[in-house]
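Local shape tokens:
==================
===
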Amino acid sequence: MGKTRSSRVFVGVGTAMALMAAMAVSVSGHDYGDALRKSILFFEGQRSGKLPPSQRMTWRKDSGLRDGAQIGVDLVGGYYDAGDNVKFNFPMAFSTTMLAWSVVEFRRSMGPDLPHALDAIRWATDYFLKATSVPGIVFAQVGEPYGDHNCWERPEDMDTPRTPYAVSAQFPGSEVSAEIAAALAAASLAFRHDDRPYSRQLLKRAETVFEFADKYKGSYNDHLGPSVCPFYCDFSGYVDELLWAASWLYKATKAPKYWNYVVDNRHYLNYYNLKTFYSVPFVGGSFAEFGWDTKHAGFNVLSSKVVLKNNNYTDNFVVNSDKFVCSVLPESPTKYVSYSPGGLLVKPGGSNLQHATALSFLLVVYARYLNRTNQVIQCGNVKATPDRLIQLAKGQVDYILGSNPTNMSYMVGYGGKFPQKIHHRGSSLPSLDQHPQRIGCKDGTPYFASSGPNPNQLTGAVVGGPNIQDWYDDSRVDIAHSEPTTYINAPLVGVLAFFNN
């Protein structure tokens, strides 16, 4: 892999501000406020536990009310990660971190949806407080995944084993523990203006969980592998989560020990040879990766704000953030991603829109940081200004919302044409209101195989999306393209808030 050279170029603050403001105005006809509201509403459809009176997704009912009871621990609550009924805490924590980062960066643009965004975060953090309440233990998952995936039933009817899985000092899981610490720390910032006692509680727990993750290093793959793999194996190692969590703790506490931890340990990231879930060749470099498993690009962008404030434009955080931008910019000579004919960012594997949303989030956040220091990026002979980063992110958002060759919105309930047969158990089966009788494990199979639309609309859900040729087959059998996930939606919340200015 050749070296990437990124140099700094300055641009006038007035020009940059005008360009950013211009780019934030919708010229595509999309209603970003409506999309924002729906993207947050989606999380109510993923809730596990006792639903509150304020529940707006009313076809969903209580579920998982005895989670943890078999071992005497309350593990009720949290989110189902996608179209199944398992609570995978690793991706759930990442989704929570991204929801919190969205509020931290863009709360002023959320308007009346800010309370709902905070509710979405609290639904997860209340659960994570439970999952970290036993000293020396962090719960990593609730639900036996193979039994769950062998059934097609509503979460309200679950009769598959709700097995709790945990990591401990003897059987460590630094990636899941550190990601939970990051989520709690980021959420403490999100709630700092609205609920200070809760914010302090979250931060205190974040520090405790991070200390546990760092003291007892190891991957949860090693002892929970049969249960977490191949669903949410950790392929990138746990150092990125430790650094990610330390960055969030520094942001929340300003304690020098956390920044020193980040600076002293960041070189360890170079020792990991990244793999992917789908066993496809990894290209690009760790600086270009960001998602539920790999935090490298997010860690660099988050940390770059600190050094940019100190006018340190040559620090590795900035250099690697620049390299990330150059890896996704279509005209960059060091581009590592692909683009469909219609302009969608595409990476190998399934559930592609997770990349489009997560990387777009980093683009708009980094553009804001660059604008504050009056800079642009140089990718070889190509100049990338903050407004170009925003333009690229806006193109991805608009594509998702329907500005694409099929004129289909990939957000359920947004626009006139959107997926009707998503891969999602609760959405595809009649609700308790429609069918109060229990639907057993295999009783849902005819609904899964049906060619008809799902009876319950999971408003705001963003599916995995089209293939590299912009083609989408609206079929719940096509899991890689038709399944929604929390980690697709969570970064999109922030991006939509940005464009909702």
Summary: The CA atoms of residues 23 and 303 lie 25 Å apart.
